[in-house]
Design brief:
Layout lengths: L13 E10 L5 E12 L3 E11 L3 E2 L12 E2 L2 E12 L5 E12 L2
């Protein structure tokens, strides 16, 4: 949905998406996404999506003390979005996305 909101207008009934990616193997970065598209009326589609990115365990260091051993930090980021798409004709489609992003620290 994030890359092509107008493409969501091609949904015929209900579509569900789930994706799990281990990005840059060895870095501990994982990306999990889920999305739902639901046909609403004759030409409209409502979509809801969520993405969570985990950056793995990072050693806590400072500029004054760059040596590891002070513990680890496991930052994550999440994005939740709501989309609306509509077909105006056989060749004209449009859509809007509203999303919010927040950080999670553990």
């Amino acid at each position: 949905m994030y890359g092509n909101i107008a493409g969501l207008a091609h949904t015929n009934k209900t579509e569900i998406l789930f994706s799990n990616t281990r990005w840059l193997s060895g870095s501990g970065t994982k990306i999990n996404s889920i999305g739902l598209g639901q046909k609403m009326g004759a030409s409209g589609v409502l979509g809801i999506s969520a993405t969570v990115i985990g950056f793995g365990d990072l050693e806590v260091t400072t500029v004054d003390n760059p040596a590891p051993g002070r513990g680890t930090l496991s930052p994550s980021m999440a994005n939740i979005g709501v989309s609306v798409a509509k077909s105006f004709s056989n060749s004209i489609h449009g859509g809007l996305l509203d999303s919010g992003c927040f950080r999670i620290h553990r």
